[in-house]
Specification:
Helices cover 52% and strands 6% of the residues. It is mainly α.
Length: 420
């Protein structure tokens, strides 16, 4: 949205940062210790130094990170017969940067000077290597490779969706797919989460950057970071804020001139006024987002301090978006937009979805898991007994509720646990 607004609205501009970007030479100067620098009386050291201006930086002499092909080659060549290693080297060389293998088997056999059967066996071994999904012929094949060893109900449904209903998955048709496979929406949500754990590009982690000092971004970026220091709780809202943008000076000044003299061009005044108001509204929306996220973060610290401090779901207090909106005196749709598909980083370093705070069943599930983890294997607890233990901890649920949550977390019944 910011990129679009900056390109479409000439009255909005980003404030240039006053911070200077660090160069390799600046980093080298700050990191390199005094002991590594030649002293004035060390004539031999000075004599041995290069005299040209193209002295390489020590940063440039560091070892490069391992490439995708090197990583896969080390696994593949060790798992195939010695006489087929030249085929393995050829196949690895055919991988693109995404980890895909688009070369037909016939072309591989011709290029590696081997039989089609030998080429097929090497490619099949390649598809077993890490990262999982390498050697696939596209996104769909890559996802199937990553899901092929999952024999759970979710895994089987996930493979069927990727194979036959990928369009429904990409459009987020949870309910339609749940009805098609005759499962509950909760099971289908687990299936979707399983597919989302796969990466469509197996070689993505090995992408090289032209700037050696540039770090790769983590998979999940938190929108709020909650931390604790000696001064107390601290809330940091990530992402752009209103102070990073301002109204274009010319547009602002020109609007004032046109407002003072109404006889001037009305079309120009309408044009200038429209974009200035649009830019001001955009900046106000960014500021509103920041203040809303700060209030939500403060509320979570006050209301969910046990979970925020430890990351233990047993400390979650029942909470809904409606209650949060009421307590903060905001509209429920505002809270929904502010927390949908957003993440919170806890002081423990764990990053969790906002949805965790609004799932009352999660706390009960975790408590049931903890109870079963400490039970006597020779005398497993029944669902009725688990419900009684939960009641002593202030959580009143029916036996059938315990059964439902236990099934949802793939925990066996007491009879099956005894047999196991």
């Amino acid at each position: 949205m910011i990129t679009t607004e900056l390109s479409e609205n000439p009255a909005l501009e980003r404030v240039a940062s006053e911070e200077d970007h660090l160069t390799d030479r600046m980093i080298e100067k700050g990191v390199m210790g005094r002991d590594l620098k030649p002293r004035g009386d060390d004539r031999e050291m000075w004599r041995s130094l290069p005299q040209d201006d193209d002295t390489p930086s020590w940063i440039e002499l560091t070892s490069s990170t391992i490439s995708l092909r090197d990583h896969v080659s080390g696994q593949l060549l060790a798992s195939i017969p010695k006489e087929l290693r030249h085929v393995g080297e050829y196949v690895v060389g055919c991988l693109n940067e995404n980890g895909y293998l688009y070369e037909p088997i016939e072309e591989i056999a011709l290029g590696a000077n081997c039989s089609i059967e030998e080429a097929e066996s090497v490619v099949e071994q390649l598809r077993k290597c890490e990262p999982y999904g390498v050697g696939a012929n596209g996104i769909q094949d890559s996802l199937l490779l990553q899901l092929r060893h999952n024999d759970t109900i979710e895994g089987r449904i996930a493979r069927k969706i990727v194979r036959d209903y990928l369009d429904l998955f990409t459009n987020g048709k949870h309910l339609k797919l749940a009805k098609k496979f005759s499962v509950t929406p909760n099971v289908m949500e687990s299936v979707f989460n399983l597919i989302l754990t796969c990466t469509p590009f197996p070689g993505e982690a090995f992408f090289s950057s032209s700037n050696t000092s540039e770090a790769r971004l983590p998979a999940i970026q938190p929108d709020i970071v909650l931390s604790r220091s000696e001064q107390g709780w601290e809330i940091s809202v990530k992402g752009p804020c209103s102070i990073e943008f301002s109204l274009n000076g010319y547009y602002k000044k020109r609007l004032e001139e046109l407002q003072d003299d109404r006889r001037k061009d009305k079309d120009e005044r309408r044009h200038i006024s429209h974009f200035v108001e649009r830019a001001a509204s955009f900046i106000e929306c960014l500021d509103q987002r920041y203040r809303t996220m700060m209030r939500i973060g403060q509320y979570l610290i006050e209301r969910q301090v046990g979970f925020v401090s430890t990351g233990d779901a047993a400390f979650l207090v029942p909470l809904t978006r409606t209650v949060l909106a009421h307590d903060l005196k905001l509209h429920e749709s505002t809270i929904s937009r502010a927390t949908q598909s957003k993440f919170v980083q806890l002081p423990t370093g764990e990053t969790v979805s906002f949805d965790v705070f609004f799932k009352p069943a999660l706390r009960v599930q975790k408590m049931i898991e903890e109870i079963l983890a400490t039970e006597n294997p020779d005398n497993p607890l029944s669902d009725e007994r688990i419900a009684q233990i939960l009641a002593t901890k202030g959580v009143v649920v029916a036996r059938r509720t315990v059964n439902k949550y236990r099934d949802r977390t793939k925990l066996l019944s007491s009879r099956k646990r005894r047999c196991a």
